[in-house]
Amino acid sequence: MRTRLLDELSTALRDMERDDKVRVVVITGAGKKAFAAGADISELNALASAGSGAEKARRGQGITRQIERLGKPVVMAINGFALGGGCELAMAGDIRIASENAKFGQPEVNLGLIPVTGGFATFDAAGRQRCCDASLFNGRNHRRAGSFAHRSGDSRCPRRELMNEAKRIATLVASKAPLAIAACKRVINNGAHLSIDDALELEALEFGTLVDTEDIKEGTSAFLEKRKPAWKGR
């Protein structure tokens, strides 16, 4: 999501918090294509330092925390893509209603990054294994809210296909940005027992560290140029 959109949403939430006539807040996307398709890739590509990356992360985190702390119920009407920060935005609501074309995902590792607006804290309730599989490591999108929130870690296959399936998953994860994958593991392992605020700060710091790498420039440039990224792991 663009920085301007985040600022406008924050202002709208503050206004609705103060308005006694507002009893319930509904957030949805304009049109039918997307609820919120995540960060503006051009903005990410232009980040120049760990400090600017961490600051952008905190800005996005502020929105999800503002929604979570709002003194009125927030309904997320999810129409189309809810990816990256858009998915985390959807999960911050009190009630989620997804249309038949809703698609959820955390594809940040495809860009050399990690989810940073509350994704790890959201997934923690589903357990560490589900957190690792539910798009954080594999960058996949999920068509339905139920499968994304509850079944992403329930991978099953016939015994004779066990090793082939294991290799398929391993190959998929291996194709993603290595520094981002490592950062995912650190946040999952180190943030599990932290308070929500400390866990969010850990996300922001890890995100900022990734902004200082060659991989984020490669991942965002590859996306903009419509080609496969060539990860360097540095």
Write the layout of secondary structure elements.
Layout: H1 3-18, E1 25-28, E2 34-36, H2 41-45, H3 50-69, E3 74-78, E4 81-83, H4 85-91, E5 95-98, E6 103-105, H5 119-124, H6 128-136, E7 141-142, H7 145-150, H8 162-174, H9 178-191, H10 196-211, H11 214-224
Description:
By secondary structure, the protein is an alpha/beta fold. Helices cover 53% and strands 10% of the residues. It is built from eleven helices and seven strands. A four-stranded mixed sheet has the order 2-4-6-7. The protein has a three-stranded parallel sheet with strand order 1-3-5, with no helix packed on it. It is globular.
Annotation keywords:
alpha/beta; 234 residues; three-stranded parallel beta sheet; globular; four-stranded mixed beta sheet
The ordered string of helix (H) and strand (E) elements is: HEEHHEEHEEHHEHHHHH
Give the fraction of residues assigned to helices: 40-55%
- Large-scale geometry: globular
Rg value: 17 Å
Query: How much beta, percentage-wise?
Result: 5-15%
From the N-terminal CA to the C-terminal CA, the straight-line distance is: 26 Å
**What structural class is derived from the secondary structure elements?**
alpha/beta
- Arrangement of strands in the largest sheet: 2-4-6-7
- Mean pLDDT across the residues is 79
Q: How many individual β-strands?
A: 7
Number of helices: 11
**Biggest β-sheet strands, sense, barrel:** 4 strands, mixed
Which residue ranges are poorly predicted, with pLDDT under 50 across at least 5 consecutive positions? 144-154
